[in-house]
Give the backbone structure.
Amino acid sequence: GAVVSQHPSRVICKSGTSVKIECRSLDFQATTMFWYRQFPKQSLMLMATSNEGSKATYEQGVEKDKFLINHASLTLSTLTVTSAHPEDSSFYICSARVPGYTDTQYFGPGTRLTVL
Amino acid sequence: DAKTTQPTSMDCAEGRAANLPCNHSTISGNEYVYWYRQIHSQGPQYIIHGLKNNETNEMASLIITEDRKSSTLILPHATLRDTAVYYCIVRLNYGGSQGNLIFGKGTKLSVKP
């Protein structure tokens, strides 16, 4: 299957700082990428849809000014958590949709964010 | 909201077939059934998907009932590495928000020696 990478795999930061997470499609071009968040013992929750060259679409309840998404190229989307607080600590996972008839999504390995 | 219902957990003996059921009684005619799994602290892994015919790949088989209201994912020879949460998701196969993957709680499969 298609390969999606994320960087970093884990990050610890102080409250009030900003953290950037990168999501890359390694062997295909992705016009659409997705960002999910997963709290312990819970399922994945879709945060936003990132479309190359246009503004991201955020799900209800997700603050677009806090979670900045940039999809500047067909292989890279970034999520920046601004002014992070302990309640933002979570597992952030990106996925990319492989263009084509089946439009299957492939997921990155995830980024564990801990805000102290 | 997820449009599927799955058992919360299941056990399977190593080497035996694991049969994971999923109910999707409100599935529409152009929605596909997708299966993903998530091993602890990793991103979800795509397994298989289908519309109405049974499908098989190197990982698993997907059996969809004729009325499409339920399906079963079959791991033919489960190993300890198959221990994971398995998600059954129905979605439209094209762009736009209707094609987004919405995750439910899934089934926690534990493969035991």
